[in-house]
Every structure is written in C-alpha cells, then in structure tokens.
Write a structure and sequence with these properties.
The structure holds 2 protein chains of 2 kinds. Chain A has helices spanning 2-8, 30-55. Chain A is mainly α. The radius of gyration of chain A is 24 Å and the shape is elongated. By secondary structure, chain B is mainly α. In chain B, 77% of the residues lie in helices and 0% in strands. Chain B contains 19 helices and no strands. Chain B has helices at residues 16-33, 37-47, 50-58, 61-74, 79-104, 108-148, 154-171, 174-186, 191-197, 202-211, 220-231, 236-249, 256-284, 296-307, 309-341, 356-373, 380-406, 409-412, 419-447. Chain B is globular, with a radius of gyration of 21 Å. The relative contact order of chain B is 0.19. Classes of the chains: A mainly alpha, B mainly alpha.
Amino acid sequence: MKNAQIIEVDFSASPKTAKETLSRAKVKGWVSIAFWGLRIYIVVMVTLVIYGFLRGAL
Amino acid sequence: MSKKIATTNSASTLDWDEVIREKDRLRVQKLYDQKGIFARLALGLVLLGPGVLTMIADNDAGGVITYAQTGATYGIGFFIPALIVAGVIAFIVQEMTVRLGAVTGRGHAEMIWGRYGAFWGWFSLIDLVVANVLTLITEFIGITVGMAVFGVPSWISTILALMIDAFVLLGLRYYTWERISLWIAAGNLLFIPLALMAHPHWSVISQTLITWRIPGGFTPAFLFIVLANFGTTIAPWMLFFQQSSVVDKGLTIKDIRHGRIDTAVGTVAMVVVSLALVILTGTLIHGIPGASGFGITHIMALLGHRIGYIGEDVFALGLVEAGLIAAIALTASTSWAMGEAFHWPKSINMPVAKAWKFYLPGLGSAVLAAIIVLIPNLPLGFLNLLVQVIASIFMPAALLFLLLLLNDEDIMGCHTNRRWQNIAAFSIVGLLIILNGIFGISIFFMHA
C-alpha cells in the first residue's frame, strides 16, 4: 500500500521551479546601488577587523 | 527511524529524498482533506517544526547566558519590552524565509548562488560555515558548564553531546529528526517555571511595558548590551536553517499559512523564555554587589542559594538543552548550505551511504568544535567576539539577499513582499544593519 500511495501523490503541489536551473538575476538600478553599499560596508568592516587584530583589540 | 525505504520502479525515477518527502506531503494532504477539530489540530501539530526549531534554537547557550547576565546587571526594566520588540522583528524576517522556501523549493544558499553568482555564494557560505563552527564551540561550552553542575567531566559531556548530535543527523529521516528536535527544544521551557519560582513582582514587570525604564541610566555599557541583543536578534544561520528546513520538510505554497503559525508559535516561545530568564535573574540576582560581573557558574550557584538546589539543577539542565538544540540546528544548517551550494544531495531524508558529502560538512563542523572545546585554557572571550564580528559583517549581506529575493517576481510570482511587508522589512533590515555596524565598530572601541 505504501508504494501505491507514493504513485498516487499529486506532484502539482510541489514547488515547480526546484528542478529548473536558476538564472542569474539582473543587477541594475537600486539593486546595483544596494550591492555597492554592501561592498563598501564589507570593506570598511573587514578593515576595522584587521585594525582590531593589529592593535590587539580582538 | 531508519532511512531505508522501499520504492517501486515508478518511484525510483524520483530522487530518494523526494520519495520520502512526497510521502510526508501525502500525509499532510490527508489531514487537509479531513474535517473536524482533531484533524485541524493534528494538521497544525504536523506542520509545526521549522519555525519553532529556529526560534527556540536562537535561545542557545550563549543566548541563555546573555539573558541571565542582562537580568542580573540591569534587572527588570528596559529589556522586558525590548525583547518583545526583538521577537516581532525576528518573526517578520523569518516569515520571509518560509515564503521563499515554500514557493521556490530551494534553500537560501542555493538561491544566493544561483541568482547572484559564485562570489556572493562563496562569501555567504564561508561566513556561514565559519560562524557556525565558532557558535558550535560556544554551544558545547554551554553544555559542559551545565553538565558540570551534575559533576560530569567536560570531556564526557562534549562526547555525549557530539554523539547525540551525530545520531540525530545521521540516523533519522527528516520528519523523525524534526520531532526528536522539537522534544529537545521543549526543554527550553524549563526556564518558565524557574522564573515563577522567583516570585517576581508582576506589577513592576507590567510597568516596564509603558516606561521602558533603564536601571542605572543610559551608559556606554548599556548601549553595548542593547546593540548585542538587537544586533544578534537574527543570526545568519537562522535564515539558512529555516528556509532549508521548510524545503526539506516539503512545505508548499498551500502550507505558507501554517508556516507562519509555526513561526509565530516559535516566536512566542522564544520571547517568553528570554523574558523568563531576564525576570529570573532580574528578581533574584540584580542588586547583589558585583552582579554585573557575575559569570554563569556564579549565577547558577546563587540561584541554588535563593530558590534551592532544584533551581540550580533546572537552570543547568536548561543550559544543556539550549546548547544541544542549537548544536543540532547549526550542524544541519551547515550540511544543508553546503549541499545547496554545490548541488550535492541535500536532505536529511537521504541515507548516509548515498549522501555522505551532504553529512560530512555538518558532522565535521561539530567534531571540530568538540575538539576545540577540549583544548585547555580556551580563549572564550576572543571566540565570542569573533562570532559577533563575523555575524556583524555577514548579517547585512544575508538580509539584503533575503529582501532582494522576496521582491523577485521571476521566482516568487504573486508571493513577493506586499507594500506594507516591504516597509516593515526594509525598516527592520535598515535598523539591523545600522545596529550591526555600530555593534561591530563598538567592539573595537570597547576593547582597544
């Protein structure tokens, strides 16, 4: 019976996109600005971490 | 309990884990089809899981210690309403991971890798794995501290915790893994009766909801604690863990409502337990000379003196549970993220022999953390700072990707964020980014 149940399952309920290949998102407009903001944030924070290590703060 | 299942030729065209997941979906569908209050209740219980586990695991060993020390230092005041607000923030962010997982059927790591490329994929993955290993160390430390109350040597506690963590991950299929984890998570509620045993002044507690009183006034040290609490309200692993959990459980679009309820139940549990801890130590420890400098062992011993040794024992058990449930979640989070990033098998339903690549990173991170914990004279303060610094760098990126994906019509269709959700989400993300940034910077000024 368990095997029969498996075959009867309605697969339309499953997420349809999971088997498809994901395409890259187009990064433009405010998204592009957000990414640059993120890059700057990361560089500033990593610089602070390195500074902290060198000064013995960490 | 076993991960072995029988498949027919028809079913064998599906991946192994998909067969089990479809069986889980079938069970849920049967409950959807049934009428009556008991069927509704059963459906609700079956669909509880990812949200409750994520939120309870956020009250990890480090969280328990932080809340206990916060209560001891600042008493009953600002942190009562602040923790409620933190819970609302956590709910709004984690609800987005439910929708993203249910609609796309993919984990967070896979989405970042696929939509934004290898650079951001690697960035997120390395940050997550490093932060998870470091956090796992703190969980094992919490477990050893808790077990020490019962006279168990740290090496035995660590090995026991590692064995349970490994068994749960390797030996169980998703549904059983989730149920066992939920039972362990229920141990987090031990702190609630403890708080009641402290006989707190409820009128004072209710007043704080209006006054937001700051005991001792607004000082740099207070600001640091506020930033630590708010800045780590949402840890990076939580986004990855809940989304992967939703996917592995097989939740679909029609389950989103229940996913929200699950997350809400978890949020209430998380907030009530964190409040219980602050109320417990805020009532019994705050005001004792030097309370702001007490370590967790000292706090537990004082609880033993104030409410009897049962108090110390129950607190220690709660600390062990908090470390264990977080260790289980972090281990699974690492495995899921690696599996998603590299398109390996990525399901707890998979048998070890067929998906050793998936299990290895999670198990390896737990073993590494356990080995490090056994090193004598471990620099705990340094490790704790390192976790916080990595989280403060990584968190804005993780939240930004979450928001971008939730506004991506190509993948979310009609389930993108609504206007009010975006206003709330962007405000929260902006606040968390600012607090994380200030927190990260303040660490240097506080310790330089």
